[in-house]
From TrEMBL:
Parts of the chain that traverse the membrane: 12-33
InterPro entries according to UniProt: LexA/Signal_pep-like_sf, Pept_S26A_signal_pept_1, Pept_S26A_signal_pept_1_CS, Pept_S26A_signal_pept_1_Lys-AS, Peptidase_S26
UniProt keyword annotations, A-Z: Hydrolase, Membrane, Protease, Transmembrane, Transmembrane helix
Protein name as catalogued: Signal peptidase I
Stated family: Belongs to the peptidase S26 family.
PROSITE patterns: SPASE_I_2 (PS00760), SPASE_I_3 (PS00761)
A single BP term in Gene Ontology: signal peptide processing
EC identifiers of the protein: 3.4.21.89
Protein encoded by which gene: lepB
Domain Peptidase S26: 7-161
Source organism (scientific name): Metallumcola ferriviriculae
Entry membrane topology: Single-pass type II membrane protein
Catalytic activity field: Cleavage of hydrophobic, N-terminal signal or leader sequences from secreted and periplasmic proteins
Length: 170
């Protein structure tokens, strides 16, 4: 009786570990936010869940927050917002971001943010232009260039910590 209980418990634990490994590897992965580059959307210490399968079925869209391998050091993961898509020409002038000459509304930015002029730059096809929401404290595509889509890990979908700020990431 005890032998059977131990065998069933070990079998259940093994199945649970395999399922957790597969889910983390292919479907969802938690991440920790270490910096202020995405304030106010994400703050240092926030913990998020990233969907790794979103881009199996669709292309990345402007405004989505994604986690990706930092192009300069692929051992490091970054979290930024997709601002430019392949073929877009973007520029920052007079504290506004323009894409192909049209002002981009960015409700996720702090109202006190003051941005330095930048560009214009054209985003190469097959790449993305990434920026942090805290533009003055963000190491982003303005400094290291466009992001190859192959470096995307997934789309940030939910903040699960701290509990008082739990919710969907917009």
């Amino acid at each position: 009786m005890v032998k059977k209980f131990i065998a069933e418990t070990v079998q259940s634990l093994a199945i649970a570990l395999v399922l957790a490994f597969v889910i983390r590897l292919l479907i969802f992965q938690p991440f920790y936010i270490p910096s202020r580059s995405m304030v106010p959307a994400l703050k240092p210490g926030d913990r998020i869940i990233v969907s790794k399968f979103d881009y199996w079925f669709k292309q990345p869209h402007r405004g989505e927050v994604i986690v990706f391998k930092y192009p300069v050091n692929p051992d490091t993961d970054f979290v930024k917002r997709i601002i430019g898509l392949g073929g877009d020409t973007l520029a920052i002038r007079d504290n506004n971001l323009y894409i192909d000459g049209k002002k981009l509304e960015e409700p996720y930015l702090s109202q006190n943010l003051v941005m330095q002029d930048f560009g214009p730059v054209t985003v190469p096809k097959g790449t993305l232009f990434m920026m942090g929401d805290n533009r003055n404290d963000s190491k982003d595509s303005r400094f290291w260039g466009p992001l190859d889509k192959d470096l995307i890990i997934g789309r940030a979908i939910i903040r699960f910590w701290p509990l008082n700020r739990m919710g969907l990431i917009k």
